[in-house]
Every structure is written in structure tokens, then in C-alpha cells.
Automatic annotation (TrEMBL):
This is Aldehyde dehydrogenase family protein. Residues 459-492 are annotated as: Disordered. Signal peptide: none annotated. Residues 6-420 form the Aldehyde dehydrogenase domain.
Amino acid sequence: MDLQPIDPVAETADAAAHALADVAPAVRAAALVAFADALTAHADELVALAMEETGLAEARLRGELKRTAVQLRLFAETVLDGAYLDVRIDRADPDFALGPRPDVRSGNEPIGPVLNFAAGNFPFAFSVAGGDTAAALAAGNPVVVKAHPGHPRLAARTAEIGAAALEGAGLPAGTLQLVEGVETGVAMLKHPLIKAASFTGSLKGGRHLADIAAARPAPIPFYGELGSLNPVFATAAAIAARGPEFASGLAASVGGSAGQLCTKPGLVFLPAGHGLDAAIAAAAQTGEHRMLDPRIADGYLRRREAILASGGVRLLAEGSARTDARAQGWVTPTIAALALEDFRAEPEAFLEECFGPIALLVETPAGTDYADLLDEFFEGELTVAVHRADGDDVSRLVRAAARHAGRVLFDGWPTGVAVTPAMQHGGPWPATTLGGTSVGTAAVARFVRAVAYQNAPQDALPPALRDDNPWGVPQRIAPAGESATWGDRARA
């Protein structure tokens, strides 16, 4: 049965939200660590389930589970630090430049129950215990996860382990819940007690859900990561300096996890006459890898066929693609090339993401301005990669890349997103719906909202805004009298 009763789930989440508001940061941080420790303790069981349901390799899954646990521990540190609360205190000032100023204090507070649509290609890092869940919990919100149909047993077991760990560490019942089914997820997205949602998946599915969130009687923020071609640009000097390393890095980035990564490079722009055909063909010779599920495999095979049938495309590494008796797809990397003039002739044939192990090299004539190509063909991307050598002036390209992507990287490949405080995993539409990031500590900002208190007595203020600051969080204080000197530094 696809549609589950959702009112009890939403009401439990709402009750948990009220209780979480009174939980001290130290308790919330300890609960995140307990969640991480529980995942680690059950690693053998969870990885076995994930291997069976997704077809991903054991080494990849163990690494991903470790990443997920580290991410939870990172957010525990974020909670204890408290900077994400952005506390601002304006002292009362009878001599304020615009007239008497009241005491005004503001800080970020939890947004309320968050609905997280789990992703299929990262059954740990972007699923039940993944980045969106971790960020929402760190912000002090309960989370309802809509399980991905590609790994239902893993989702259920992860939720069971996580809920027990969180509640055992002192968080209220209902802090983490799981629902299943497309209709249930849509109904939950429409429920008035849900205050924000997150999603990682296809452009079509994400846009559909974003429109539902926006069409609610009370619209809510919907943070969707939808798709990216992650273009790569390589200068002639870079290819001359390290052509073999470029070829092997490209093949590894395209073929890893059967290309089922949101940061897989789909289009690579490099000079015509690069001389890398043989090196790329050799580097792409790998063992076949199962795709996540028959639906993903079918979409990849159809899109791959359309790309290879386009005018001017030549194969460097043909790759392989087959389906077994269970309709599961088994693939190896495909890398093709075409001239820029052929790409320009029908760009719509190549500017749709192909989710799987395929990349297209676009061979450009001497003097091609890569910055112009970015502006001409791309809107919003998760990443843009720049391969250069000493002496190359790529300043225009880098400025263009920053306009179009959330992360600009040099002399490397976009797969393998680092879980660090500074990471930006998001970009302009259609990479994401509302910007922000789903990796790194800034991800918490999506699930809080600012509240200001004016002339409030100390005992009525949230702890973070009080003069005694019992939580020990950073407070930005504007003292009385400072408005008289505003602008002086700019005149100096």
C-alpha cells in the first residue's frame, strides 16, 4: 500500500519539535555523536544490506558509511560552536542616530519538522542518516525521511538504529521517523505541520516536488539538488604537461560507482588535437559495474544511445551495457568526442544530464574562449573544473565559473565531495532549487529562521540571547553610542 497514514507521523514530529526547542546544545550534539557511533557499530549489517539492494561495491559503501558518521560528528561540533545561531544584540541606545533605539536581539531558531526525500545513489550519505538529516537535526528540528524505493530495507534498518540512538541520548520520541511510498511522500510534503523539505534526485522529480511545496496554502522552502553536467575545461598547456594523468583521472571520475554521482563530469572541453584518444581508451577499460536499479539502467541506456547517435560523435571508449534476467543494468564507461562546431549545431542533444558512466569530450579550436562557452551553454552547475598549467591566464574562465557553479576546482575532478566546513555542494538553478549547500556546516542555515526580540526581559529570552549566555555561543553586540561613528572608517 503506497499511502500511509500521515497525520500521526506529522503530529509526532510537531510534538518533538516543541520538545527539541528546550534541549541544550550539549545534549543535541551528544545525540548526533551517538547516532554516528550506532551506525559504525552496525556497519557490517548495514553495508551488507546496501550491497544487496544497490549493487554498489563494498569498499565504496564502507567509505560512504564512514563519511556519514564523520558528517554527523562534524555537525555535533557545529552545534556546540553555536555560530550558526548568528546571535546579534543591539543594546538600547537613547542617542541612536535615527532616534532612541530599543534593545533588539535576534538569533536563528529551528524551522520545524523537516521532510527529507532520501536519494538512491548514496544510500548512506544522502539517505536516512545523510547530510540533510544531519543538518536538520543539528539545527534542532525533527526529521521525517521519505525512504528511497531503491533500498527500502536498508532505509528501515537505518531509521530504526538512528531513532533508538537519538532517543537513547535524550532527544524526544519522534525526532527521526520514516515513511515510504511516492503518494505518502507527496502527502507529507503537503502537510501543514511540515515546515521545510529537502531532496536529492532528478530534475523532473525535484521540480515536481518543488512546485508542490510552493503551491501549498502556506508555501515552505524546498531545497532540491536536481542535476548537473559539471563541465570541465582544460587548456592546451595543461594537456601537454600532464596528458596521461588527465586521461586516467577522467576515466576514474566518469566510471566510479557506474557514473551514478551528481558530480560526475559529463562534458569536457579541451583543445582539438589533444592526442589523448588512446590514453583515454586504455584508462576506461574497467570491469563492469551494476547500476542501482532497472529504472536507472533503462534511462541510462536510452540516453546513451541518443548521445552516440548524434551527428559528429566518435567513440574513444565504447564501453559496454547489458541487462541481466532481472533487468538490472551492467555497464562500463563510455567516452566519446565531437568537434565544437558539431556540439553547437545541436547542443540540446548533449546538455541534458546522462546519469551513468558516460562523458563527452568537446574538442575546441585554438583561441576558443572557454568563459564564453560557459555563458553560452550553461545555466547552473554543482561544479566547474579548470585544468591549467603555470602561465595560463584563466581569470575570465574562473569568474564565469563562479557565476555558474557552487564549486570551482582546479586540476582535479569533481567526484569525491569533501565533508568539510567550507564545502559548497549546491549551485544556481537547475543544480539546486534555492541554492545553499547540502554538504558542510553551512547546510544548517537551510533549516533555521531568524527571530528578533525587542525589549524582552532576560527570563523571556532564549538562552542564546541572554546576557549571561548559558550556552556560551558567539554574540555579536552593538553597544550604545556606536552609530555616532558609522562611516568614519570609510572616509579614512
